[in-house]
Amino acid sequence: MIIDQHTALYGVVGYPLGHSLSPAMHNGVFLETGLNAVYLAFETKDMGGCLQGMKALGIRGMSVTIPHKSVVIPLLDEVDDLAKRIGAVNTIVNSENRLVGYNTDALGVLKALEDKIELSGRNCLIIGAGGAARAVGFIMKENGVRLCITNRSNDKGEALARSLGCPFVPLKEMGDIHADLLIQTTPVGMYPHDDQCIVPRELLKKGMVVMDIVYNPIETKLLTLAKIRGCITISGLWMFVHQGAEQFRLWTGREAPVTSMIKLVEMELGKSG
Ligand code: ATR
Question: Of 51, 87, 150, 242, which residue is the least packed, with the fewest Cβ within 10 Å?
């Protein structure tokens, strides 16, 4: 890989960043597609300063993560409609010094599901009411899915259900819900707490589609249980890679090599245990 005066710079901004898999994924793809570009991790609380820096230094694109996904919106020159409705931006494109915000999490989850199933007409239970649940909820609603929200705290869950125009059920009542699609959006089950599962066994019915947006481990406790109960399972790895593929497309105008991105992320996850 050659870095010279033409090298395009991309990155991820968040605080704290923790162990982000995005640099390995995007740098791997730049290398594979022969693009003269690098992707770095910027751990900062100063989102305003970061945007100024993007313009001043000509940084081409940025992934945005916790805690900046909502606060960045009023600071951008333009925000895509879907990202506006979701209320969160996870991708910035520097288009001739205009910073434009998008939400590729929503498209990531859509792609991950559409690869495996027909969505329209499904009854979906979303577990959680944070930023990820909002992205999932809005894109599902737009694709003809009937929704129901459950969440640990009732007030947050009810607020999301209201903005999606769907019912809310308290967490301890989720076993009574009839759903043929379940999307788990909380961090429960994430490494190193990978022995945890928020979903009661009896909810997992044969033929049900179960997606966990946690991707470390690739197969969470929920997905292991769901497999045993005869469900169709989808790992959060697919959403993560598809949201990254959409970022690559927005930044470069090219289609991303999704299969090699999956391999790259699997390899990285293998390294970190
Ligand atoms: P993100 O933007 O990644 O979705 P978030 O906004 O912090 O993250 O939201 C996390 C979601 O996971 C919330 O719905 C949270 O529930 P509360 O609204 O009650 O806080 C849920 N969550 C986090 N830890 C949880 C746990 N241990 N058990 C159940 N729900 C949990």
Answer: 87
CA dihedral of 261, 263, 268, 271, whole degrees rounded to 10: 180
CA of 237 to the centre of ligand 1 (A): 19
Residue closest to 32 by CA, chosen among 237, 259, 253, 215: 259
**How far is 155 from 158, CA to CA, in rounded Å?**
5
Residue 69 annotated in active site: yes
Whole-number Å distance between alpha carbons of 60 and 118: 35
Please state, in angstroms and rounded to a whole number, the distance separating the CA atoms of residues 176 and 179: 9
Q: What is the pTM of this model?
A: 0.94
For the segment 204-263, what is each residue's pLDDT rounded down to a tens digit?
999 999 999 999 999 999 999 999 999 999 999 999 999 999 999 999 999 999 999 999
**pLDDT tops 80 at residue 272:** no
One-letter amino acid at 225 equals L
Distance (Å) from CA 227 to ligand 1 centroid: 24
Q: Which of 55, 69, 221, 271 is catalytic?
A: 69
pLDDT digit string, tens, across residues 46-96: 999 999 999 999 999 999 999 999 999 999 999 999 999 999 999 999 999
Ligand 1 pocket, Cβ-based, cut-off 6 angstroms: 128-133, 151-153, 156, 185-188, 198
User: What contacts 3, CB < 8 A, 6 or more positions away?
Assistant: 38
